[in-house]
């Protein structure tokens, strides 16, 4: 029976990097090159979850060392997350990560429209933080009013020059 466990451990050593890194890397590159958003979401979600599990392993390494067959369990979960037939990464992200993220992180960016995000990406980080604070304090509508007034003033100044 010892040979069986040796075989399982060797299989994990070979299959782990393929399932957890090489295939997701290949599929992520394909997703970047495809015109569809769904595959991008699948692979971004996978990498977020993979990073989280890796950080968890680093922090809890002494405890994880005592869990029997941890590498086999991790490989099976990674396969479930990776294989598009199961969409495990999307399921975990939508049911656990996203709700926790929005509950615990006060993120002004989640309240912004696409035009506001485009504007914020064009300014310095310091100005972006000030705008985010303004939106938190006064709301997204107040920011829209200021932007509309600034745009109108800019057009007026261009017209008079």
TrEMBL record:
Membrane topology: Multi-pass membrane protein
Alphabetically ordered keywords of this record: Membrane, Transmembrane, Transmembrane helix
Stored Pfam families: TB2_DP1_HVA22
Transmembrane segments: 6-26, 47-67
Cited InterPro entries: TB2_DP1_HVA22
Residues of the signal peptide: none
Compartments, record wording: Membrane
Family the entry assigns: Belongs to the DP1 family.
Official protein name in the record: HVA22-like protein
